[in-house]
Design the sequence.
């Protein structure tokens, strides 16, 4: 975790997401009107501060990547509000939105699919600079500097992506994301497609760049060991909702939501002689096309109450900075015990 973890909240957020919803139409009729909607992201709110890392974790299909794409403008939000440095991204003039979005970039999961196989490394990294009207000479100079920053030789400039390893390609993708000097980078599973031996190198590179450039990360991952190492704060998503959000150290020590408890109990631990208490949720993940009424976890939760099937529990702070969306959260807090 970086040095901003204790100070970030003293300042206004870099990015603020309010009640974001992303619904996809399905089963259109003959008139082209949708008969139903897939609620991929359903009323999500959070903030990211300057220089910090907020991680989004959860099962596949919970809406993590969709949230990131909506923030970047790659998917149109159904509703909600997005603010970058206090400026709205969902309204206002086109030029202001464009300038704000230039301050946000993305690093995708698969570095090979992220690069044009017919473009050299220099062309790929320099493309956003060229699109911004920067001269050829200045672009080349900037590309060389970026290669130095990500630990690649300047001799790579004229080589093609297929001449590099997976880890080297991800370094190229990171260099391209840095080209326009962004304030926020969405990291969408940036190491999951890499060999285990390379992952730590890329994660350490991201941390070094963050400390040097004061970049904020929205880190999307299902690897909780990586999240624990990298994050300042962690938001747990389930079926399009954030069910728990807290500082990383606090969350890994004291999970309160039943889904977070089940998710974190699956983390492998090497503790000889100590029996692990594994919490396994029964049943299958509901479809976002037909989500359950009330709490999204009600069909799998062993602690459900009658009220859970009537209304969605709000994400409320049980203690400062630790929000939980559960009607029994206060009870979890009273009975909580260290888990890490």
Sequence:
């Amino acid at each position: 975790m970086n040095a901003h973890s204790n100070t970030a909240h003293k300042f206004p957020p870099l990015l603020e997401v309010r009640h974001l919803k992303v619904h996809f139409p399905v089963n259109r009729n003959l008139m082209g009107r949708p008969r139903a909607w897939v609620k991929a992201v359903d009323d999500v709110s959070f903030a990211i501060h300057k220089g910090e890392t907020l991680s989004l974790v959860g099962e596949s299909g919970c809406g993590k990547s969709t949230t990131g794409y909506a923030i970047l403008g790659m998917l149109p939000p159904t509703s909600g509000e997005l603010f970058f440095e206090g400026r709205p991204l969902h309204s206002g003039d086109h030029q202001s939105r464009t300038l704000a979005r230039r301050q946000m970039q993305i690093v995708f999961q698969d570095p090979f699919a992220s690069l044009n196989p017919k473009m050299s490394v220099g062309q790929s990294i320099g493309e956003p600079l060229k699109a911004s009207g920067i001269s050829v000479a200045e672009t080349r100079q900037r590309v060389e500097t970026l290669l130095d920053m990500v630990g690649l030789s300047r001799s790579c400039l004229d080589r093609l992506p297929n001449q590099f390893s997976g880890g080297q390609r991800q370094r190229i993708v990171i260099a391209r994301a840095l080209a326009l000097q962004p304030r926020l980078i969405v990291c969408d599973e940036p190491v999951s497609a890499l060999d285990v031996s390379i992952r730590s190198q890329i994660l350490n590179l991201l941390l070094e760049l963050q400390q040097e450039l004061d970049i904020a990360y929205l880190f999307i991952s299902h690897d909780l060991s990586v999240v624990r190492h990298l994050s300042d704060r962690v938001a747990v998503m389930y079926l399009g909702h954030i069910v728990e959000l807290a500082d990383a150290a606090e969350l890994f020590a004291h999970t309160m939501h039943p889904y977070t408890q089940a998710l974190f109990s699956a983390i492998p631990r090497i503790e000889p002689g100590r029996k692990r208490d594994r919490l396994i949720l029964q049943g299958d993940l509901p479809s976002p096309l037909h989500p359950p009424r009330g709490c999204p976890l009600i069909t799998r939760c062993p602690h459900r109450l009658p009220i859970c099937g009537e209304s969605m529990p709000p994400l409320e702070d049980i203690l400062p900075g630790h929000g939980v969306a559960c009607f029994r959260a206060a009870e979890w807090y009273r009975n909580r015990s260290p888990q890490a």
